Amino acid sequence: MDLLSFYPDEQAIPSSVKLTSDYEQREYLINGKMLSWHGPMNPVVSPVYIREGKEYKQKIIGSTPLLTSTEALMALDAAVEAYNLGQGQWPMMTVSERIRHVEIFLGKMREKRQEVVNLLMWEIGKPQKDSEKEFDRTCDYILDTINALKELDRRSSAFVQEQGIMGQIRRVPLGVALCMGPYNYPLNETFSTLFPALIMGNTVVFKPAKYGVLLVRPLLEAFRTSFPPGVINVIYGRGRDTVGAMMETGKIDVFAFIGTNKGANELKKAHPKSHRLRAILGLDAKNLAIILPDADLDNAVNECLLGSLSFNGQRCTAIKIIFVHQAICEKFMQKFCEAVSKLKPGMPWDAGASITPLPEPGKTDYLKNLVEDAVQQGAKIMNEQGGTTVNTFFYPAVLFPVNDKMKVYYEEQFGPVVPIRAFAEEKEVIEYVLHSNFGQQLSIFGKNSKTIAHFIDTFASQVGRININAQCQRGPDTFPFNGRKDSAEGTLSVADALRSFSIRSLVATKINEENKKIIGNIIRNRESAFLSTDYIF
Length: 537
Description:
By secondary structure, the protein is α/β, with parallel strands linked by helices.
């Protein structure tokens, strides 16, 4: 298989996915104003190479502003002013009013679907179907968030009476939020923190991911016109030049970050009052699949293939190491490698392509190093052409047997390398999980309920989610998404995110006629946005 042949010439690119212009983006959004940057720019290089005669050149699709700490602090000050110690227009709005602003944005966002999908393909190499799914799922997530907030508000509208005290308990915003997402799901995972933060009444500084940044450009005007000035501020640039300066001020109340635990630790340390910083973090993972001797092999192979190699394995929820019982290891390996051989390399827009170019500079070299290290320590590449590299292509490598001397045994590869180990005793698997630095998810494949139950009870205190005969995954979005150890802080789901970006507050009074009259007047005359029994439909 000649991976080089999958790179297209310009004429072969379908017109429907071609970018309509060079995305030289100089705009950024602060305090409701679209500002223009005239300083240094960061080129945005696509993982797609274009054939020009006998040469292949990496496509440059645009550029983004390299803002400095000055602009970052301006954005932060705008968010602080808009929040105004909780007295700003946005945090003081009724829930129904904030929902209306988010609904306006969602309508405008949907108009940009094709443009955003194309940018996902070009900038991070995500297959077209996955790019479309990411956009649609994000819209659904925002809509589900609106509906969850309505339900939360309905429940909160009731009064509680206990021990002669009556009270109403509602959730209120925390303050100013800094939202940063990952490059592999630059729309969905970023917006899954951004919109809960906004809709609960926080003001936000939003810094897009390092890659997958241009897709925000089509949405900037929607942000500007859908929310009051200062409520949402969008900045660009290197994290070390922008984010650190904002954290050092101590003005950030909520830190929503999806990335590495090392990066999160460094940024949290920069905050001078860490006890006042609420952190919602999605971090590293080394999710495990356990294949028991009575597993349905066809199902286990299919789920592990999807789990380990969907979007080239560039998912925090990907299966990143597989333990197979030695009794079925040979059969599993044969079926798994056959399934890998059927994966189609190609450009993101090619029908059926599942192996696409990798967007992260230096990633193929890193993966090659992992494979070479494993081979030096006794592993073999089990699949034909495994580990073959051409420019930004890296053909999946299945490694067996892996052991604790190899980097890939512990490190999160975040790419199409699949390490497999045979095990004879359950304690081998248990020891791996207990001593892992990560604790997001794992998958168990088998039929014996007693064995599975034992693993469930053992691992429930180690990971955030245990999947039975299914790959590791985030959805449905109504399920909690979290992790233990170095894998996460806080919990996300449609409902949990609303709680993460808010705090409960209550109004209480002794039950007597005078107090009941006061409360009744406030409610009947709609004198308070907080104290209300309005029912949001």
